[in-house]
Amino acid sequence: MRKLAHKPLMKVKIHSEGTNILIVVMLIMIVINLSAWMFIRPVAIPWTFTILSAILYGLIVNFFRSPRRTFHGNRENVVVSSVDGTVVALEEVFEPEVLRRKVRMLSVFMTVFNVHANWFPIDGEVLMVRHHRGRFLSAYLPKASIENERSTILIRAENGQEVLVRQIAGAVARRIVTYAEPGDRANIENHLGFIKFGSRVDIYLPLDAEVYVKIGDKTMGGVTEIARLRPHSDE
């Protein structure tokens, strides 16, 4: 098992998906707080509004942060986590929608406190992008992978193997954004999409991939090595 600790080079900015939301929330909070200070007494009540507003706004800013990350490890056949979060599933499954074969599914769940940008898990070429309509069950549930609203991205690694990434909406996260398009070059340092307000990403790996994480491990998108594909020459 490899160590999961990393010291990536990171530059943080606000993700473009959050810009309009942050502006609208700021305007609403300004109106509410100005009204409170002008018309409500005792002064403790306006102070309470201001403090709570600052905390809430800070949480929203934190949610939409978009760090730029650089991977420093060996990129040959590497699979990195697509998201920040916690590994909640690692099992052999039959993927019925795209691959139609047995694979190893690795799921990472994001809370509202995690970065919600999604990175490409491998270097390679995007073969297919498909949106699936569905339900909005809790993303933590196993059946969310096949029943929830989701976006599926199929990528061919440089060694010819295929890896499937699935962005899954949840009970709260009902907005999936996918930037990847067929023919795009996949790079583990680039974003493939974004999911708003807590959700989950599944990565489907070949059965012979060497997996480095276990259930309960914390991952960092674009940085944490979660697996390594079997070299093509060994097949």
Would you give an account of this structure?
The two termini are 23 Å apart. This protein has three helices and 16 strands. It has two domains: 10-66; 72-234, Distorted Sandwich (Glucose Permease (Domain IIA)). The radius of gyration is 20 Å and the shape is elongated. The protein is an alpha+beta fold. Strands 11-7-8-9-13-5-4-15 form an eight-stranded antiparallel beta sheet. It has a three-stranded antiparallel beta sheet with strand order 3-16-14, with no helix packed on it. It has a three-stranded antiparallel beta sheet with strand order 6-12-10, with no helix packed on it.
Q: How many helices does DSSP assign?
A: 3
The stretches of 5 or more residues where confidence is low (pLDDT under 50) are 1-10
Task: Report the principal-axis shape.
Answer: elongated
So what's the CATH class of the largest domain? Mainly Beta
Mean pLDDT: 85
CATH superfamily of the largest domain: Glucose Permease (Domain IIA)
Amount of beta strand:
35-45%
**Sheet of most strands:** 8 strands, antiparallel
Radius of gyration: 20 Å
CATH topology of the largest domain: Glucose Permease (Domain IIA)
Share of residues in helices: 10-25%
Which strand order does the major sheet show? 11-7-8-9-13-5-4-15
Total discrete domains: 2
DSSP strand tally: 16
Structural class: alpha+beta
- Written as H for each helix and E for each strand, in order along the chain, the element string is EHHEEEEEEHEEEEEEEEE
In the CATH hierarchy, what is the architecture of the largest domain at level 2? Distorted Sandwich
Q: How far from one another are the termini?
A: 23 Å
